[in-house]
Design a protein that fits this description.
Elements: E1 2-6, H1 15-26, E2 32-36, H2 42-46, H3 56-61, E3 72-73, E4 79-82, H4 91-96, H5 104-110, E5 118-122, H6 129-137, E6 140-145, H7 151-164, E7 171-178, H8 183-195, E8 199-205, H9 208-211, H10 213-216, H11 220-223, H12 228-244
Bound molecules: adenosine-5'-diphosphate and magnesium ion.
């Protein structure tokens, strides 16, 4: 089982959008679990799952409730969700009181290691214990970068955050919400992938088709498979898959 954390210290950069679309792309070939670690539950909403964890996430982390009981299937083949709900607001506190506080997410995921090939973690922004947990358990950390004078700073923050943890997970960054009418954005597309080894040349354009995900409550490629943004997430998944070396395991049917 390979774990991919979609993470940035910044909010509103396209983490949840990437998490949902990467999960959908991965589910074409793999058994995928998306774990929505954000109390806002946006990924849960986009996959049309009820934002409810019975007993709260605290009971899951404490091992009082089994994770299998909280996982929900979606209308998409091979794609399940561990929903986020309001109980995730206290997750940092829950972790803080736990032993090996940065390893709790990994511990929970051990329960389903045989059930899924790929786990996608949709992280809240910030650099708190939730993020430490996500990075600890991850085989790769995917970072959306919106071109701006501050985007390199957020990449540096994430890279440093991963480097300071015990994780050896590589960072896979990509340009998100790119508006080619803006000079700064065109420059970022041209220069960043060349200047920074961790920035792939995958570019997700800013487009209303992505905004429509909120109304459709579905991954973009499920209703507009040929648009540039959908193809970009397909390509991004290929890069991530190559990075984590996810393989289809032989299984009985
Ligand atoms: N490529 C894009 N083009 C247009 N809107 C986008 C794009 N990516 C994300 N958005 C929109 O921007 C908002 C924030 O995106 P989201 O993925 O929720 O960010 P985060 O999870 O980092 O906070 C959402 O309303 C989403 O629909
Ligand atoms: Mg989000």
């Amino acid at each position: 089982m390979k774990v991919v954390a979609v993470y940035s210290t910044k909010g509103g950069v396209g983490k949840t959008t990437a998490a949902v679309n990467l999960a959908w792309e991965a589910a074409k070939e793999f058994r995928v679990l998306l774990w929505d670690l954000d109390p806002q539950g946006a990924a849960t909403f986009l996959l049309q799952v009820k934002p409810k964890v019975k007993g709260g996430v605290g009971a899951l982390v404490a091992g009082k409730n089994k994770v299998a009981g909280a996982i929900r299937s979606t209308s998409h083949n091979n794609l399940d969700v561990l929903p986020g709900d309001a109980s995730y607001r206290d997750l940092d506190l829950v972790f803080d009181h736990a032993k090996k506080s940065e390893q709790r997410v990994a511990k929970v995921l051990e329960q389903v290691a045989d059930d899924y090939d790929v786990v996608i973690l949709d992280c809240p922004p910030g650099a708190a214990l939730v993020a430490e947990n996500a990075v600890f358990s991850a085989n790769a950390v995917v970072v959306p970068l919106v071109p701006s004078p501050l985007s390199m700073r957020s990449l540096e923050q994430v890279t440093q955050f991963v480097a300071e943890s015990v994780s050896t997970a590589p960072v896979v960054a990509f340009l998100s919400m790119v508006d080619r009418r803006k000079k700064l954005h065109r420059e970022a597309v041209e220069h960043l992938p060349l200047a920074q080894a961790s920035v792939t040349d995958v570019v997700v354009p800013a487009t209303v088709q992505i905004e429509r995900m909120g109304a459709a409550r579905a991954p973009i490629a499920s209703y507009a498979p040929a648009v540039e943004a959908a193809l970009a997430y397909g390509e991004l998944w290929k890069r991530v898959q190559a990075t984590v070396k996810a393989k289809v395991r032989k299984r009985k049917h």
